Amino acid sequence: MADKIILVVKDEIRRDRYRALLDTFGVSLHVVASLKEAINLASEESHTGLLIDLPLLVRAPQVIKFSINDLLNGLPSGTLNIHAPSGEVRLLQRGDRTLNCSSVEQFVEICAKFHPKIIFSKKRVQLHYNVLLATTPDFRDPDRSVCMDISTGGCFLIFLRPPHRVDIAVGSTVWIKMIGLNNGDSIEAVVRWMREWGTTHNIPGIGVEFQNLSDDFRKQIGSMARY
Question: Partner of 64 at 20 to 30 A CA spacing, among 21, 41, 73, 121?
């Protein structure tokens, strides 16, 4: 049977209706009353699926709907609704996964075969850290920078290219240390874009994508990105 499915529903009557049905399949549930709670819970513990009350999802602010996408696409996901004339609980699929199921029972069977996962939101948060930026893992001749925002996928670093820094370019590998984060361990990253000084009215810098990020570091970022 499925293990640890997140059920997101606020209305008590609808919650009890969903639980009564899911209990018949022996499902282990984590019930929360908001999408914010679901995002936070998914970054702390592994789960095999996600079910959301349709009216709750429809009424959610657009920013929260956007933030839930990582969770929707990372786990088997669906929305539940109660058909007014019949009182039947019906399932609608969500996310990028093609589950090929049309009933709650089939959904539960799919979740039972799914390996439990922790899902970290890639939502960027504005957290400012002093950073050392280097082109070699031994941090020979590093530059000083500041992290402007961060997610589990990467971050934006203020960067004014010194004359000798021709080796930092789009596609190059860099190593960064965020002072006060992850015990000072270095992070390997790839430069995905660069904004040169004087070319726009925006802050100059580089956008980097983290490589081989440790679970410990992901959890630290996930905790910082909590709602």
Answer: 21
8 A C-beta contact, residue 27 and residue 4: no
Nearest to 72 by CA among 117, 14, 9: 117
- CA dist 151 → 62, 79, 191 (Å): 19, 27, 15
- Is 166 a residue whose pLDDT tops 80? no
Instruction: Tell me the one-letter amino acid at 163.
Output: P
The residue ranges of every structural domain in the chain are 5-112, 129-224
Q: Kindly tell me the sign of the dihedral angle through the C-alpha atoms of 20, 108, 226, 60.
A: negative
> Contact at 8 Å (CB) between 176 and 133?
yes
Structure tokens at 158: 């203020």
Q: What is the pLDDT of residues 3-47, one digit of tens each?
A: 589 999 999 999 999 999 999 999 999 999 999 899 888 877 889
Query: According to CATH, what is the number of the domain 129-224?
Result: 2.40.10.220
Q: The whole model's pTM is what?
A: 0.59
Q: What pLDDT is recorded for position 99?
A: 66
199 CB contacts (<8 Å, ≥6 apart)? Answer: none
Whether 5-112 shares its CATH topology with 129-224 is answered no
Span 92-138, pLDDT tens digits: 866 555 567 889 999 999 999 999 988 876 555 566 789 999 999 99
* Nearest to 53, CA basis, from 37, 40, 74: 37
B/e letters for 132-145, b = 16+ CB within 10 Å, e = fewer, are: bbbbeeeeeebbeb
Return the percentage of the chain with pLDDT > 90, whole number: 43
